[in-house]
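User: Run a structure prediction on this.
Assistant: Running it now.
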Amino acid sequence: MSLLGSTSKCGGSQHDLTKSSEGGKIMDKPQITFRKHKELEPDLRMKEEFESLKKEMRSFLTKFSTILQHLQLYQNDYTDFKYIVEGI
């Protein structure tokens, strides 16, 4: 007999019961919701990693912008421009 999606009457009220994958335990909906939140932890780690990568990308963009500014300063002087490009 499957308990999936069945309801139980207890004292005149109905409770939704769902069979979990953990040894056939029966959990009510609040417990299932809590379990779903726990399963979201990997998503939070991915979000933190994404935020870290965004910060790193901003840092690279700042460095790249600085290099472009230096190149614009020396664009009229070929010798200095060549020196900067070779230094990169």
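The radius of gyration is 30 Å.
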